[in-house]
């Protein structure tokens, strides 16, 4: 993790690179705060690592929640066994951070700040794929407009992720139907439910796949990362030799 001029990087041992593939950059963006960006970023990152991808996370949100989660993760698993590289940075340094990481990683995830300001714009422009977490509410839907417009201007692949979806909710079904009409293929098939286990697992630096394996929440994340891999064309091409032991340890 980097703060100011200090840098702290973690590399999980035993994870095989994806031969010949360019690094893929995924930005998790949403103008509205509280949409679950950090939770989505952390869960995707661990899911990628568990599937054998050398994964880095860059936290450019001033709240630094993702960096805090990773620091707790270091304390739990040990500095060399978090399965992730974590850097805390600012938007204006983003291009150089990605350049430093690209030769040793397969996937880079960026947790961007809320509000469409300079740092968020830089994170969007750096991405191969933008994922916009949207809670099933009108205000979240309205807040996606500015981010979608920037992505369209930059001609960057975008996907909307319905997050914190309550089962059998009439509002969630209405929002889902509205998104299908308005964005069509840009709506991810995968959804994340409104589950306490997502936030609860992050308290001690883990994810739902590690704290509550085999649950619906864990399956939702696995389905999501598989869909994202398919969009990016990276597939499940490598396996982590030690990731199951270190990354799934309770």
List the helices and strands and how they pair.
Layout: E1 24-28, H1 37-50, E2 55-59, H2 65-77, E3 84-88, H3 94-101, E4 107-111, H4 118-125, E5 129-134, H5 138-153, E6 157-165, H6 170-182, E7 187-193, H7 196-202, H8 208-211, H9 216-232, H10 243-247
Parallel strand pairs: 1-4, 1-5, 2-3, 2-4, 5-6, 6-7
Helix pairs in contact: 1-9
The CATH class is Alpha Beta
Q: Profile the largest sheet.
A: 7 strands, parallel
CATH architecture classification name: 3-Layer(aba) Sandwich
Report helical residue fraction: 40-55%
Q: What gyration radius follows from the Cα positions, in whole Å? A: 17 Å
Question: Would you write up a description of this structure?
Answer:
This protein has helices at 37-50, 65-77, 94-101, 118-125, 138-153, 170-182, 196-202, 208-211, 216-232, 243-247; strands at 24-28, 55-59, 84-88, 107-111, 129-134, 157-165, 187-193. By secondary structure, the chain is an alpha/beta fold. The protein has a single domain, classed as Rossmann fold (3-Layer(aba) Sandwich), CATH 3.40.50. A 7-stranded parallel beta sheet has the order 3-2-4-1-5-6-7, with helices on both faces. The protein is globular, with a radius of gyration of 17 Å.
